[in-house]
Amino acid sequence: MAETIFSKIAAGEVAADILYEDERAIAFRDVNPQAPVHLLVIPRKAIPTLNQVTPDDASLIGHLFLVAAKVAAQEGIAETGYRTVVNCNAGAGQTVYHLHLHVLGGRPMQWPPG
Fold it and tell me: Which CDD domains does this chain map to (predicted)?
């Protein structure tokens, strides 16, 4: 996999506003927020898209969602509500090819999005 800005953040080579980190994942603020609260949760393991997730990654993917819930609570949006999104490939809006979970909140989210 090609090196990405997210792999550089995971390696500590690029600064980010990190809210949470452990040996498997990192959560930080998005530099181009689409909501009042816009966080990203990434695995330290480099996985380009959701299409490359394997059965061996099941625990890691579950962990990303647990981290998302933790940082949503830290940021005060857990009770009012938040959206989690994983974009897969360019047609869905993925621009960084390192799997990442968006956590969006701080305002009412309309459905369908748009």
Answer: PKCI_related
